[in-house]
Amino acid sequence: MRLAAVAKDTPKPLLTVAGKALIDHVVERLRTAEGLSEIVVVTNHKFYGHFTRWAKTPPAPPMAGPAAGRAHAGVPIRVVNDGTDTPEERLGSVGDIHFVWSRERVHDDWLIVGGDNLFDQEMTPFLSFARAKAPAISVGLYDIGDIRAASKFGVCSLDAQGRVTLFQEKPEKPLSTLIATCVYYFPRPTLTLIEEYRVQSNALDAAGSYIQWLAEKKNVYGFQFSGKWYDIGSVESLNDAQQHFK
Length: 246
Known about the structure:
Blueprint: E1 16-17, E2 20-21, H1 22-29, E3 39-43, H2 48-56, E4 77-81, H3 92-104, E5 110-113, E6 117-119, H4 124-133, E7 137-143, H5 147-150, E8 154-158, E9 164-169, E10 178-186, H6 193-200, H7 207-217, E11 220-224, E12 229-231, H8 235-245
Parallel strand pairs: 3-4, 7-11
Antiparallel strand pairs: 1-2, 5-10, 6-12, 7-10, 8-9
């Protein structure tokens, strides 16, 4: 069962697992990340109030830092409204990335994490890997261990150096069980590519389609996460995560 059937008035990142919102689990994974200057949460107009209230509410320990509100160890959290209200207006995941880039043109590297990702590994190993591969783009990968389940995601093949040699977005017949999570590292020089992609493609909803396009044009590297990872897209995956994280 899709989560939309039971949580239509709550954004997925604010659903709770083990007593904490999904997005709080994501922020916790960043607690050891060095060089983090700001956390930006992108949402639509419908849920903008939900996220601004979340950002202003002090978290429970161990996340509580010295700053007021939900600032993460002194790193501020900012909520951006993409201005959309209905599913028909939605910009999509790539569209939201483009929205922030075109509006702000930030001169920093970007770490992008989907708010409905749930995982139990710290982000530091991925960041160390990604920074070592820069200026190439890096993506977080996970071996889902089920060839049928892999068909719902972007499926990757890597060479001996960890470079993505093949990326298939939701293939009918996956070649492996190594899938892309919604964890991306975009070094600053690569951010302008999103405008080129927007002009060439109408597939702004699926971030995996953008990664597939990038892998055909540029060097993209994959880092395999260990531990547990969940894409919270159904009631079943939410229940499975509740069992593991409790």
